[in-house]
Amino acid sequence: MGSETIKTGRLANGEAQKSVHKERRGLSSNGMNGKHENLGSNRAGTSSSGEDYDLMMNTGDVDGNLDGDVEPVFRKARQGDLTFQDIHDNRDFFDEDDEDDSDWEPVQKHVELIKWFCVNCTMVNLGDGVICDLCGEHKDSGILRLGCFASPSSQDAGCSEVESEMKGKNKEMHSQLSASNSLTAIGFDERMLLHSEVQMKSHPHPERSDRLRAIAASLATAGLFPGRCYPISAREITREELQMVHSLEHIQDVELTSHIFSSYFTPDTYANEHSACAARLAAGLCADLASTIFSGRVKNGFAMVRPPGHHAGVREAMGFCLHNNAAVAALAAQAAGAKKVLIVDWDVHHGNGTQEIFDQNKSVGRNGAEGSCVNIPWSRGGVGDNDYIFAFQNLVLPIATEFAPDFTIISAGFDAARGDPLGCCDVTPAGYSRMTDMLYTLTGGKLLVILEGGYNLRSISSSATSVIKVLLGEGPGSELGNIAPSRAGLQTVLEVMKIQMNFWPSLGSSYAKLQSQWGAYCNTRKQIKKRQRTEPPIWWKWGRKRLLYHILVRRLHVKSRGKPSLHSS
Question: Does 311 participate in catalysis according to the annotation?
Answer without folding.
Answer: yes
